[in-house]
Amino acid sequence: IFIMLDGTVITCSAPVNIAVIKYWGKRDDELILPVNSSLSVTLHQDQLKTTTTIACSRDFQEDRIWINGREEDINQSRLQSCLREMRRLARKRSGDGDPAHGVAGLSHKVHICSVNNFPTAAGLASSASGYACLVYTLSRLFGVEGELSAVARQGSGSACRSMYGGFVQWKIGERADGKDSLAEQVQPETHWPELRVLVLVVNAQRKHIGSTSGMQTSVKTSSLLKHRAECLVSGQMDKMMRAINTKDFSAFGELTMQDSNQFHATCLDTYPPIFYLSDVSRQIINLVHCYNHHYREIKVAYTFDAGPNAVIFTLQEHLPEFVQVVRYFFPPESNEEQFLKGLSVDSVPVSESLKAAIGMEPVANGISYIISTKVKTSTFIIHHAFTNDLL
Ligand code: DP6
User: Fold this and answer.
1) Which of 167, 197, 321, 349 is the most buried (most CB within 10 A)?
2) How far apart are the CA of 96 and the centre of ligand 1, in A?
């Protein structure tokens, strides 16, 4: 809680995104420039978001940051990159001669307070929504407008895609200074309203290798990564964009699963190998393939990032049955009512023939809970802005 006698306080929130064509590997670690383009779906903020409050005041002695209630080191280089870039853009704007663009708080220090509405322990990536929110809130504080994905990218690569809603691509770019390595909306969130998302939070999270160091080792040692970046991704991107533009779920789902598998194959090709998938992750993969095979149609697709949790894409009409299937094969031990969080899902029976077709032994407590959500409906939410005269 900030109690300000004079100063400015702004609170904004930003969404999480999940890549369907993965970013894995940098060609420039400092500027965070990728070895391949990527494409993601921005998720709804009601279920997954970061909320950031930034205050600035002449009374503050230094910049400080608290993440989920704990003070963190403001001198981390990525935080410093974002702060430096945003202050530079604000100064540029205030120096353009227009008195309306004078930024009162620019010489003041900031206090930043950032929280996620999802448990960090769940192992869901928070750097994308975190850095997107930091950059956006700073932009409101300093009155900076325009393309900001290049700044968010310097916080965390995947953060640049959280600057837009709907379906978003991060273009690899060609320039050494990274000015053309930007995020761009492919389709707005309204384009495919039937698309639904389930996050299956897998139990027994172990500490794993973070994406930053993981991809560094992959770039150094994996020839599959090189082949993927040079020969495969651009074709996969084209097909994925076509699938999204035409709302072809079957193509979208297949490409999503194949790209996730290719990314995890790259992790296995890394030396020493990196394992993000757990036994439960592999059981989920198997369940999805058996489910689709039973219907002779791709109704459901999975994707996994740098951890064992699954993100499932499906269409509204298939959602109730698939949720029941997950409940049946991964029965929760105690938290029956708490098992499904987020958007409600109708309860439907699962046929014996479907259970038999999946043919898996139920795995008690394999999944802690499910978050039911959808594609995001708006980009950023400004919660409140309070300004006193700083002069
Ligand atoms: C597997 O964006 O977390 O989620 O740029 O080093 O901060 P840094 O990495 P980060 O990597 C995300 C990797 C991924 C795939 C993706 O989101 O595209």
Assistant:
1) 167
2) 36
